[in-house]
């Protein structure tokens, strides 16, 4: 399993990189927004009570999905505003770059006309070296500022693309239970999502591999979002035996979310794979920060042990102290 982080650094805004796994500093999650978890726990409790009434020895949870037209991929005004906030002096720099380019171009044009006149008049031949010197300075200045403008504009476009992808991700919908649907943005400050995208066997194997780390992952605010690339999400079976009751409750909580509106999720994931140069059929995972932004990705099974080692507990004496230290943005 290749695990690797790197979908976009904070100031580079590049595409998701499914080929490297980076080390990060992490933020301790702030769980003041605990009302959502309370609702989730209540729903899980009701589900367990229902199962006990039916005297079932094994519980099967089937994830379902629905389709909905995808939203426009144009850069929204919100993304543009966020870009201005993240780079407040970029517009000023770009304005001055354009002004200097225009100044250099105008100076070059004037110098060129003078050079032509000097070459046509032998009596002004002594002025040619000085005119050539000024022309070279004008051309050099215009070229330098044109390069700086190009680089700044490219960085702006990359940042806007990243922010637009983040906004699209935050608008994707999740099903908590049969009666509650939320957006990814609703879990900001509440949970660190890990998206497992691939065929049903891949998701089931990821489900099994996560079992030894269930408690540790929950302590770090991790919730898993399984997305079946073939559109058929698998059924998760939980042992309802009395000795496994506590673990089963935690397992259900860890894997309680299900994506809905398949086309939107599929389009978003396909875009990330395309930007990263990963084949559409490859099973991948994406790890989100507590603020809902992508912090890591990889091809293959999620590295549950790495998440436990790298992510800090979401509760305790350090809770809230390291907000913003949840790993760099990809």
Task: Describe the protein's architecture and organization.
Strands 1-10-9-5-6 form a 5-stranded mixed β-sheet, sandwiched between helices. A 3-stranded antiparallel β-sheet has the order 4-3-8, with no helix packed on it. Strands 2-7 form a two-stranded antiparallel ribbon. The two termini are 20 Å apart. It has 330 residues and is an alpha+beta fold. The protein folds into 2 domains: 3-73 and 171-310, Glutaredoxin; 79-169. It has 9 helices and 10 strands.
How many beta-strand runs? 10
Given helix and strand content, the structural type is alpha+beta
At CATH level 2, the architecture of the largest domain is: 3-Layer(aba) Sandwich
- Tally of individual helices: 9
* Radius of gyration, taken over Cα atoms and rounded to an integer in Å: 27 Å
- What's the average pLDDT? 77
Regarding quaternary structure, how should these chains be classified? single chain
The total domain count is: 2
How large a portion of the residues is in β-strands, by DSSP E?
A: 5-15%
